[in-house]
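DM from R.C. (forwarded with permission)

"hey, sorry to bug you on a friday — could you get me a structure for this? deadline for the figure draft is monday and I only need the backbone to look sensible"
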Amino acid sequence: MTALIETLPALGAVLILGSGLLALLGFAFIRRHNVPRHKLCMMGAATLAASFLIVYLTRWALAATTPFRGQGAVRLLYLAILGSHSVLAITLVPLVLLALFRALRSDFARHKRIARVALPIWLYVAGTGWVVYWLLHHY
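My reply, with the result:
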């Protein structure tokens, strides 16, 4: 069981990075007016993000938190990235749910407005999630 728990942070990093890449690919498809592929990518991105959340909460429930070992400037950098990542990740959840809800209801004008806000945040959260993982587990 311990070995499985130890793999969860790496799995979470892969899931959140994958969700960001699929969201970016979905954006590229909608820019080319390829709605079916856009929808497929965005549903995949949302599924990976939800899977990440399950993995993250499972890890958090089953194991102690991992303390950051860095000191000095790198610690300040880590905390700044972690803080912005955490606040924006929490903000992102209702934005994505609202964007998905509007798209599924075919309210595309309002979907587009919220998606324009959500996508940059999603990409930032996915990228900084990877940075936080690397700094916490490999620095």
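R.C.: lifesaver. The two ends are 25 Å apart (CA to CA).
me: no worries. The chain has one domain: 2-138.
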